[in-house]
Every structure is written in C-alpha cells, then in structure tokens.
Write a structure and sequence with these properties.
Blueprint lengths: L3 H12 L6 H8 L3 H13 L5 E4 L4 E4 L14 H20 L1 E7 L4 E10 L2 E6 L5 E5 L3 E10 L4 E2 L2 H6 L4 E7 L2 E7 L2 H9 L4 E5 L1 H24 L5 H6 L1
Parallel strand pairs: 8-10
Antiparallel strand pairs: 1-2, 3-4, 3-7, 4-5, 5-6, 9-10, 9-11
Helix pairs in contact: 2-3
Length: 240
C-alpha cells in the first residue's frame, strides 16, 4: 500500500529533477519493483500527478510543475489501503472485461461495467442503464469482481472526458463489428473516424445532428475563407 513518506519522497525527487527510477525507489524503501510501480501509478492516477517516464534520463519526471493535494499529508493508512484495493479491482475489471458488483454510499447496489480509470474516477455504465457515468472513488463503498463479461467499447481521450465530466458516444460498425465509441470532443471523434477503414457511423440520431451542424459550420468557414482569400486556421476550425 502507498505510504505517505514514500509518496512524499518520490514527489520530492521528481520535483527536484533527480529522475528517480523504480530501482532507486525500491532500494530506498526496501520494497519490490512491482510495489514501486504501483505507487508511481497511485501518484499519477489517484493524486493526479503529470508523471511520465523519461527514457533519456532513465527515470521519472513531471510534464509540468505539480504540487501534492493539501489534504494528502493527513490521509490515514486505512484510507490508502481501501483506495489501493479499490483501484486494483477496477483495473482488473477493465483489463479482464469483467463486471463489478458495486455498492454505493447511498445504499444502492448495481452491476457496473468499468471502461476507463483516471484521477480517482472511473468511466463506465451500469447494467441497468445505457448511459455512461463517471463514478468518483469516494462514492463507492464496496466492490466485488464477478465472472460476468461485457463488451468493452472504445474510449477516446479519457482524460478530457473525466476532467470535464462530459461524455458523448456514437455507435459504429468497424470491420463488420458493431461497437460504441465514447468521446469528449466531436472533432477528435471525426479525426479518429477518418483514420479508420471499413467504418460506418450507425447512431444515435444526436450524433448525426451534431455532424451535420459541424459540416455546415465548416462550409461557412471555408466560404468565408475563400472570400477573404485565406484558408481557415486550425484554431478557427477548433472553434466550430
């Protein structure tokens, strides 16, 4: 389980530009490489640190400056154990495409299909509903992995979906297989579709309306650009 002192040390080393490796981390605290990996994962996905591995420096670094949450130092070991266990179950469910029996703090119990995990939040869908939801770990009281499988959809840009608490979806037929695609930005979805082969958008009706609106706006933008003798910039295109 993650310990305050280990996470604080790792954060300090990365912040000071010392590029700690998993071996450095494991040797410093007498833990296994696997445990060190889990704690780096905890720093990234639970505490939200923009930590990446630098092949050049052979250690970890922050993409941008980062400060640990103010309440981090006051977290109890019990909280770490509970969160760590919860994360492991969610990741196992995502990787194995197995449903979770979820008990929420409001007392409700449902079967849940977990699709993606980021920053203490999980994107998925309850078996009783067709709408995707974003659950915060704080809402979950109990988790149990069950043997029932589910078809995992495609998820584009999970970071923006979860950070903005906004998820859209489309039903596509890709290589003769029907699937759902969850996304945040319509333009990113369009770019993804363009790069696929043997793909057909099948629904829902709302996605066709959005695509038609986008087409009209792009046409208007192109016409305005032709009149002025200039091509629309990427930023202008993004604003449509």
């Amino acid at each position: 389980m993650p310990e305050n002192s280990r996470i604080l040390w790792l954060h300090r080393m990365i912040s000071e530009g010392k590029y700690p490796s998993l071996k450095d981390f494991a040797n410093r605290f007498g833990i296994s490489i696997r445990q060190a990996e889990r704690e780096v994962h905890y720093l990234r996905n639970v505490l939200g640190a923009p930590v990446v591995y630098s092949r050049k420096e052979k250690g970890y670094r922050y993409v941008v400056p980062f400060e640990l949450p103010v309440l981090f130092a006051s977290l109890e070991k019990k909280s770490f154990r509970e969160i760590d266990k919860c994360i492991l179950l969610i990741e196992q469910a995502i990787n194995q495409r197995k449903m979770l029996k979820v008990r929420l703090k409001d007392g409700s119990r449902e079967l849940f299909c977990a699709y993606a995990f980021y920053k203490k939040k999980v994107l998925g869908i309850f078996e009783s509903s067709e709408d995707a939801v974003i659950l915060n770990l704080g809402e979950i009281k109990q988790l149990q992995l069950i043997g029932k499988s589910f078809a995992k959809p495609l998820v584009l840009d999970v970071r923006n979906i979860i950070e903005n608490n906004c998820v859209k979806y489309a039903i596509v037929k890709l290589n003769e297989e029907r699937n759902k695609v969850f996304f945040y930005d319509l333009l990113e979805f369009v770019k993804w579709v363009i790069n696929q082969k043997n793909i057909k958008i099948e629904g829902p009706g709302s996605i066709f309306k959005e695509l038609e609106m986008l087409r009209k706006r792009l046409n208007n933008l192109m016409e305005a650009g032709e009149e002025s003798g200039k091509s629309p910039t990427e930023e202008q295109t993004r604003r449509v």
